[in-house]
Amino acid sequence: MRARRSWWGRLRRFLFWTLLLLLPLLSVWAVYEMHTSRLQSRLLHRYANTLSWTLQPGPSQAIQFPRDGPFDKRLLDPVYVQAQETLLTRGWRRLREVVSTEDAIVNYPLPEVRARMREKYS
Q: How far apart are CA 110 and CA 28, in angstroms?
């Protein structure tokens, strides 16, 4: 006569066979996800729908730029630094103009950006 197994033995056997059957299925799903990124795109799409932004006057105090390193303003050419600051300021003003309209920001690039885009894609 066969001895009756304890509940622990039956549980271990059940878990073993369950994992043995689920492991190939999970492997196939993982390979499919690696090739298509379907779940990732669905989750990121849902997350992106919850994001929003507001435009407030002036630069953000939350952004901290490094004071030293290869892009330290003191080490760069002053003419280049002035040109970049001017471009940034003009871009900021342009962004404020665009926000008052209901159109997409990409439809309103600065003139020099528009000229570069024409050169690149023409």
A: 49
User: For the segment 17-63, what is each residue's pLDDT rounded down to a tens digit?
Assistant: 999 999 999 999 999 999 999 999 999 999 988 888 777 777 777 77
Q: Is the pLDDT of residue 112 over 80?
A: no
**pLDDT at residue 105 above 70?**
no
Provide DSSP, 33-95: HHHH-HHHHHHHHHHHHH------SS--SS----SSSTT-GGGS-HHHHHHHHHHHHHHHHHH
pTM over 0.85: no
Longest dimension (CA), the chain: 95
Single-letter amino acid, residue 91? G
Two structure tokens written together for 6: 């304890």
* Vertex 69: Cα angle to 67 and 70 (nearest 5): 125
- The C-alpha atoms of residue 2 and residue 100 are separated, in whole angstroms, by 82
